[in-house]
Every structure is written in structure tokens, then in C-alpha cells.
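Thread: "does anyone have the structure for this chain?"

Original post by V.I.:
We have the sequence but no experimental structure in hand. Need at least a predicted one for the grant figures.
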Amino acid sequence: MPPLDTLASPALAGAVAAALAAGAYAYAGRWPTSQIFGPTLQTGSDWRELALTFDDGPNERYTQELLEYLALYKVRATFFMVGEYVRQLPWVAREVHAAGHIVGNHTMHHRNLMYEPPARARREMADCSRLLEDTLGAPVRYFRPPWGGRRPDTLRAVHELGLVPVLWNAAGYDWRRHHPDRIYASLTRGIRRNKRAGCGSNLLLHDGGPGGVGAPRAPTVTVVPMLIHRLRREGFRYVTPERWDPGVEASLQ
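Reply from O.Q.:
Generated one for you, C-alpha cells below.
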């Protein structure tokens, strides 16, 4: 064991403080339910409400397969799209919008905005919104930061651009788990936890991937009808983030 005077040295104390500060910063800027750097839209107070959200698309084959299942089960979902993929597959983005789903902004190039200079982060968001609106002929309201990464200046830019930041509170970890049963177990574990906390669940899944168009997402497609069918039998119902958005509520009153 090091001598006590070594443990109490200013250098070591400074290193410990820096490590703790780095951990706190990472929690504040990347943990999806953290509100430390500013408020984000996540969920509502009814545990029966579930929102299906898909990140990193569009992805021609798997996005379109998801659309077929969502139409079959009459479920609206939210697709947070990467601008450079929309540029390659504009017809898929239009199909999602035409089917009645929400299309959201997921930056132009899937950058982690926690580490981007403020001007570049703003450009990532603004360029994606512009491209989506030109492609769809409709305004874009919702934004999800890649990896959940944000800072106070990021969230200020989000609001200045007229966007609402949307995070999540249950994840399927489908970017690293390749079996539908494991994806399902991860999601339902989060849903049960949220039920105990008395809130709904904003479910994170992926129809694409940050490596480019064509990411393999067959397990995600497999789990979606299983999830919808089983949880409906348990009394859950499917909504979109609009349901929890105070701005939308106010406009309807």
C-alpha cells in the first residue's frame, strides 16, 4: 500500500478530482435520463404508454420491413434519421413520412455533439433539418442527439433551431446484441423498471447504423412484432413523443 502522505498528496488529490469531474460530465452529457445540462423530452406519467423510436436510418431494406409490420399492427413510430443517409435514400424517408410516422433529426453525419465545437454541432443539426424538410415537404420538430451526447450549448442551439430534444429511458442494445430474445429482454427490463417508477417508456431501437447505409438490422425487425403483440396483451399501448410534448398539448388547446 502507498504511504499515507502519497495518498494525501496534492497531485493525487487533483487526479482523483479530475476523474470524478470527468465521470460527472460524462453522466450529465450522455446518460439518457440526465437533465443536468438542460431539459429533454423523454416520457409521460402513464406507465402503459410506450413509444417505439428508431435511430440511424433510413436503411432501405430494414426500414421498409419495419414499415410493413407497423402498418400491420397499426402502430405509429418515430424515426430519427441521419441526413447523409436521407440524401442517399430520399424515397425511403418519404415512405416513412407518407405512412404517418414521425421523422426526426439525428444530425447530418451522426456526430457525437458532446465533443463537437458549438458551430459545427449547430451546423450538423441545421443542415439535417433543412435536408429533411426539403425531402419531406414538412417541418421537423424532434431531434435526438447521436449517443445521447449533448452539452448546455448544444441544447441551446437545439431550441434556437425550433427543435425539441428527445432522449429515451429503455434500450434494446440492438447495435451490439444480435439475437431478438436478448433485445426483447433488454427492452422489457427497462419497461418494468419504468412501470415501477410510474412513467411510460421511450424505447430505443435502430433501423440503421452509423457505419453507413445497409447496416444489418434483421434482429430488430424480428423483435418489433413480438414486442407489439405481447405487450398489448399486458395492457400497454403505443404512442409517439407528441403525446408527452407540452408544446403540442398547448397548441391543441
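V.I.: this helps a lot. The chain has one domain: 49-252.
O.Q.: and The first strand starts at residue 49 and ends at 57.
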